[in-house]
Write a structure and sequence with these properties.
The protein is an all-alpha fold and about 550 residues long. The chain contains 22 helices and no strands.
């Protein structure tokens, strides 16, 4: 426990020391925001205390992966909302609304529409069939080696892409708050992430998510009220002012770019709607509740909180057009930014500064960083679970691991992911990584989601169909994004894209379903017939939550 205390205190001392040094040596124009530092340190101290408390309750693999199934439905709903409401949503979607108006709202609407699918089709079966990871559900009646290898690899790819976005955003925010070098900031974030997950597991991660969700919603509500107060609580005045301030005028009330191309709009929407159901760090939260009823309640609570948050983000983005957008430099080449934040997509931060001064700006900046810390912790736990539970425990140890060794692998996997996250954050410094968010959703919608849905509802699915279908969706989505304008032209600097659309889900997701169906139908092996027969036993487990042995007897 002494070593735990040292590891917990060390990152805090690093932040305080670095901030003090920055305060003394930086020019006045780059002085750290004292309010933001105070709020951020209060968050770190609180969550470190939670981690210390959670460490005493994390004794088994079940405690580490799923908090022993002891999280209530309401608590899990707040935690799911905290996991999903990332800094990319707070900063990115508000800036998209700020830049393009109606087009930016497509992200909000699509993201909200995905949750009823999870509530009615997946929540109960996820809870009853799964144990620790998504691979538990896919491998329930299929080949435990091949399906787990695919699921672990797919989940790891999604986690890595999400980590890049979060680490780059964290580095930029800490650089803004503390005046630290970008690389030092990314390392500090990696250290905190490893401490949260390694010692606290799912218990600590859950409560970090809950606190972050409350702070984020509170900040959003407060800033929205300040914005409405600026316009006399009249949405009509806000819209009229936005139209007069934006360079596109009335066009912001209609499609400008994304929605004018039906293929791009549909492909983007499909990825955002169905990608949610394939995100490993979101779906594994359904294993933390005691029963299916609590799982449904958690989705309902999360849906309400997330819906409210997206509405607030759209309103804040619209208000920013009127209040911040008076300066034409913020609309140059369609890139939101300015001298205050060095061109970073942070229109909402400018809005906070304009409406609430340094106090509101500091509070929202600290909350945004707390958001990144919480999401990164959830991603690290999902990645560590895929490595330790799916690969080590069920592939290498063939489902009979020693509990202590599995926990040891989990913690070392978390440390490894922390190193990977730091390296990726530094490598992608200064790069335009906005496409990575949509890519993560597109991969999840094209690989994890089709196989997960078919495994739960289609009797005909076989191991061959699941592996080939999942791989076809994963590889095609990666290839199409690589060949798209967002990567092939803007990142790799080729003159013309080989694939004309930025979003792959419209093409890669149906391909995964078709390949899984065809490969399963063509599979006439003895093993395939046994897998089809086992579907009836799986249905009993999915509907009643019985143990596998009781389901088989029934």
């Amino acid at each position: 426990m002494k070593s735990l205390s040292r590891l917990i205190v060390a990152p805090m001392l690093c932040f305080i020391s670095f901030a003090a040094v920055a305060q003394n040596v930086l020019p006045s124009s780059h002085q750290p925001n004292v309010t933001a530092i105070a709020i951020f340190l209060a968050f770190v101290v609180t969550t470190i205390g939670i981690t210390y408390w959670a460490a005493g309750r994390t004794r088994s693999a079940s405690d580490f992966y799923t908090a022993g199934g002891g999280i209530s439905g309401v608590q899990n709903g707040f935690a799911i909302a905290g996991d999903y409401m990332s800094a990319a949503v707070l900063l990115g979607v508000s800036s998209m609304v700020f830049a393009t108006g109606f087009d930016g709202m497509i992200y909000s609407v699509s993201a909200i529409l995905g949750w009823p699918l999870i509530m009615f089709l997946m929540a109960e079966r996820l809870r009853n069939l799964g144990r620790f990871t998504l691979a538990d559900i896919i491998a329930y009646r299929l080949d435990p080696v091949g399906t787990r290898l695919f699921s672990a690899f797919s989940s790891f790819v999604i986690v890595c892409f999400y980590l890049i976005v979060q680490m780059v955003g964290a580095g930029q925010l800490i650089n803004l708050l503390f005046g630290l070098d970008y690389e030092v900031a990314v390392v500090c974030v990696g250290v905190l992430m490893v401490v949260y997950v390694t010692f606290g597991g799912m218990v600590a991660t859950t409560w970090v998510q809950i606190i972050k969700a409350v702070l984020l919603l509170s900040g959003g509500v407060l800033l929205t009220l300040l914005a409405f107060n600026h316009f006399g609580f009249s949405m009509e005045k806000m819209l009229d002012s936005a139209i007069s301030s934006h360079q596109s005028g009335k066009q912001i009330l209609g499609p400008i770019k994304i929605a004018t191309d039906p293929v791009s709009m549909i492909s983007l929407s499909l990825g955002l709607v169905f990608g949610i159901a394939g995100l490993p760090h979101i779906m594994m939260r359904f294993f933390t509740v005691p029963d299916a009823k609590a799982a449904r309640k958690s989705v309902l609570v999360a849906y309400g909180l997330i819906g409210l948050f997206f509405i607030l983000v759209c309103i804040m983005g619209t208000a920013a057009i009127s209040i911040v957008g008076q300066d034409p430099q913020y609309f140059e080449q369609g890139v939101v930014g300015g001298p205050l934040l060095g061109g970073v997509n942070m229109a909402i931060m400018h809005l906070a500064q304009a409406l609430g001064g340094d106090l509101m700006f500091g509070f929202l900046a600290a909350v945004a960083f707390a958001t990144i810390l919480a999401v990164v912790s959830g991603l690290a736990l999902a990645g560590a679970s895929a490595i330790s539970h799916d690969l080590y425990a069920n592939v290498l140890c063939k489902g009979k691991p020693d509990s202590k060794s599995e926990m040891r692998v989990s913690r070392w996997a978390t440390v490894g992911l922390g190193i990977v996250a730091v390296v990726l954050g530094i490598v992608f410094k200064g790069q335009n990584v906005a496409f990575l968010v949509a890519l993560a959703f597109g991969i999840a919608a094209s690989s994890n989601f089709p196989i997960l849905l078919l495994a739960m509802y289609w009797k005909g699915l076989t191991s061959r169909g699941a592996i080939w279908g999942g791989l076809s969706g994963l590889i095609s989505s990666l290839a199409l994004v690589l060949l798209s304008p967002g990567v092939w032209v803007k990142v790799l600097h080729h003159p013309e894209a080989l694939f004309p659309y930025d979003y792959p889900a419209l093409f890669s997701m149906p391909l995964a379903f078709v390949v899984a169906w065809a490969a399963s139908c063509l599979d006439r092996s003895k093993r395939a017939n046994l897998e089809r027969e086992a579907f009836d036993h799986q249905c009993v487990r999915a509907e009643t939550g019985w143990g596998a042995d009781k389901a088989a007897q029934h």
